[in-house]
Fold this sequence. Notes:
By secondary structure, the chain is an alpha+beta fold. It is about 25% helix and about 40% strand. It is built from two helices and five strands, in the order αβββαββ. Strand 2 and strand 3 form a beta hairpin. It is elongated, with a radius of gyration of 16 Å.
Amino acid sequence: MESPEIQLFNAVFAVSTNLSYTTIDYSPVDDESLAYPFVHVGETNSVDVINNKDVITGRLRQTVHVWGQAHDRALFSDMLFQLKTGLRRLRRLENYRLELIDLNSNQMFDNTTHETSIHGTIEVEYKLS
């Protein structure tokens, strides 16, 4: 059985790929071949509550990074909206049930490359049972 963290990561990755977004699981910093827009399924955090030796409950938090071109803000905004909608609909992992606890996002301009991009993050937290 896979850990709850990797099950959530895989489910979030699938939400993005099912929306036909270019989706990666590594830091895009050194990948100059990667074209905008794209989604980076990033950090996973967990707080486990072990009720007995076989049952794990607790909370899982997943961060999703969305990168787009600043001049195409409508597409970028729609990507964030569609991803958040998909994340709100997640109810089950392979071995666990999920209850949405918190979902928030932010957007910021990034001028660390030769073209101005826009970077958004989505942080979603679920109760695991």
